[in-house]
Amino acid sequence: MADYKIITADFVNLHISTSKDDILFSEKRFPKDISISDLKAKLELMTGGSCHTMQVEAYTNDNKFVCKLDNNDAMLGSYPLEDGMRLHVIDQFQIRNELDSGDEPKFELSEEEYSKKSDSVRAFLQKNKLGKYNEDNQKKKEFLEEEEKRLAETTVVGSRCKVTVTNAPHRLGTVMYSGLVDGLPGYWVGVKYDEPLGKNDGIVKGKRYFECPDKYGAFVKPHNVLCGDFPPEDYDLNEEI
């Protein structure tokens, strides 16, 4: 009898959120053979939480709790994680609070003095042509930003739409807002879904952008929204067994 093996990817793509902010970090790629202890060290650099005190919880892309990553010696791949899920970091964020604190006087260099330093972050980026110092990447970033703006400006409020996001079924709804959102990067489209499949009621960080019932509203990137003739689907519950 032949032996069969289940082959899985060596990496998993996960979103990161924290108990300090109501903002998701962009999706990050993690190797499955990394220990939870090493994972927390990476999350410390990203979030400003302490790897020694943080707790990490996993959620599905529709915000259902999956598990706690509470065994520091375990491998990330030993937990039931899939692409598109979210890791939620819970901590007091003392490291970040200290960096953000304005109570203590800060040592500052002039622009001229900083430019002369060979061990600065800027010098590292320039030497390795990273970030804004990579001309090709910078041009690509500017093109994508302009394209996102164009898509947002051509998305008409009141239009019917279909929202397609990676690792999630498509959702139908109505465009309620298109533009900038305070505290979030780039342009966004606010959608009222036909079903309670969203995350809010049109409010983000205390500011209302449109009206809809709770859990019917969502903000998605313009490239995930296709406007067109998408009539509401008829869900006849009497036909279900």
From TrEMBL:
Q: Say where the protein is mainly found.
A: cytoplasm
List the GO biological process terms.
cytoplasmic microtubule organization; post-chaperonin tubulin folding pathway; tubulin complex assembly
Q: Which InterPro entries match?
A: CAP-Gly_dom_sf, CAP-Gly_domain, TBCB_Ubl, Ubiquitin-like_dom, Ubiquitin-like_domsf
Q: Where is the CAP-Gly domain?
A: 179-221
What is the annotated localization of this protein? Cytoplasm
Q: Which GO terms describe its molecular function?
A: alpha-tubulin binding; microtubule plus-end binding
**Any one annotated GO CC term:** cell cortex
What family, per the record? Belongs to the TBCB family.
Protein's name in the database = CAP-Gly domain-containing protein
